[in-house]
Amino acid sequence: MKKSQEILGLPVFSIVDGRKLGQVKDLVINPEEGKVDFILVSNGSWYVGARVLPFKAVMGVGEHAVTTESENQLATINDTSSANSLLQRNIEVKGNRVLTNKGNLVGVVSEYEIDEETGKLVRLEYKTAADESKIEVVEAENVLTFGTDVIVIKEQTGSTPPPVLSSESKEVAANVGSDGANLFKERQKQFLVGKSVIQDIKDADGNVIIPEGTVVTEEICDLAESKGKFVELSQCAK
């Protein structure tokens, strides 16, 4: 099993000629099947030079590199309708909220693991809503929906009762609609303010909108949100 963070940033090599084709920029999730369908490969010019590698064409995901047979396995985003469609749906796993099918908000995904042979998501790790320093794990078989706004999981009957939430989290859990989403996002912004960005964040045209080393402020959060990069900011602020 591999955590997503162990794959992101790895170089991608062609086995045929031993040449570096780029590096892993992102993992493209198929929410219906709960697996990685494509690896987004960048050659340095984000989106301008980005291509996709079907996960079925991956020969290996090792400690130091991802391998594929040849460069012919890669295609541009616009030439791969299924990859383009998945990217447009903007399904994120890390940074997304975890909600039970009984309506209890339990936390925010901080990491996930995949089976490097099949691309299937195996388990999710999430920071609990009651205590962000506490990490809980949910097996992917208990995930009902990978959604744009929330990831829905089965609430286990007879299990430990949901954690006692802070007054703010209770308000979020009681209002999982648009008001609740806004409240939760404000909480995330407060958590990010004061942290530093560890890599450049670019817009869809490849322009750097938040440089590496930037200290996050509320204005930076608003900028990232307006460009559809708030989830990426939450992942890149340390």
UniProtKB/TrEMBL annotation:
Pfam families assigned to the protein according to its UniProt record, in alphabetical order: PRC (PF05239)
Domain of life: Bacteria
Domain PRC-barrel intervals: 4-58
Name of the protein described by the UniProt record: PRC-barrel domain
Organism: Syntrophomonas zehnderi OL-4
